[in-house]
Amino acid sequence: MSKRYWNMDLEEMMEARVHLGHKTRKWNPKMAPYIFTERKDTHIINLAKTARSLSEACDLAFDIAGRGKQFLIVGTKYQAADLVASAATEARCHYVNRKWLGGMLTNWSTTETRPQKFKDLKKEQDTGRFNRPPKKEAAMLKRQLDQLQKYLGGIRYMTSLPDIAIITNQQEESIALGECRILGIPTICLVDTDCDPDLVDIPIPANDDGIASIQLILNRSTSAICEGRSLRSL
């Protein structure tokens, strides 16, 4: 994996409150190497460790993107949902930002049929075919399309399992992380002070509840993806 320079501004991380962990009573002892101190019963994350891990994650993302591989970004918690959709769309990544449907990856043979169903229904809607059936049937088709859009809209162009996953919250996305581990899909994951860094390939110690913190980590990661892809196209 190539080493590149990524500008990791510790002051910017402070402003984004990346350093704020959970209450000390909720901590996971495995996060001890990433904790700088505690203040008012709250653990403070060592931002030098965050910068180092984020740089490593960006190196990996850059290399994988440069080889034309596919990314899946997962973040279903309300603080992350819109950020995930925006960052993934900009970087041309697949994403899941609503409920993770169990077996989405481990039962891929079934999952991959659903985006096609979504595209078929969308085409019917766009061509006005929803207006032809009886109103009750048309309403049912519309509800079905809305559900597919909500849960699978971000993976509608994903034709195979992703090569790597970026996960914004280890606790919230434990099922998604578990499926990646079963399938051997590498993971980059935000790990707050209540997480287990041993469960992911590249843990990024960071506040996983704050919008600004999540946005900063996502922006850095997807910028590396975009840069890797742009160099590949030269």
Automatic annotation (TrEMBL):
Read off the CDD domains from this record. Answer: RPS2
Q: Which GO terms describe its cellular component?
A: chloroplast; mitochondrial small ribosomal subunit
Signal peptide residues are: none
Q: Which stretches are annotated as coiled coil? A: none
Q: InterPro entries this protein is in?
A: Ribosomal_uS2, Ribosomal_uS2_bac/mit/plastid, Ribosomal_uS2_CS, Ribosomal_uS2_flav_dom_sf
Record GO terms (molecular function): structural constituent of ribosome
| Subcellular location as annotated | Plastid, Chloroplast
**GO terms of biological process kind:** translation
Question: What keywords does the record list, in alphabetical order?
Answer: Chloroplast, Plastid, Ribonucleoprotein, Ribosomal protein
Q: Which family does it belong to?
A: Belongs to the universal ribosomal protein uS2 family.
The name this protein carries in UniProt is: Small ribosomal subunit protein uS2c
This chain's source organism reads: Picea jezoensis
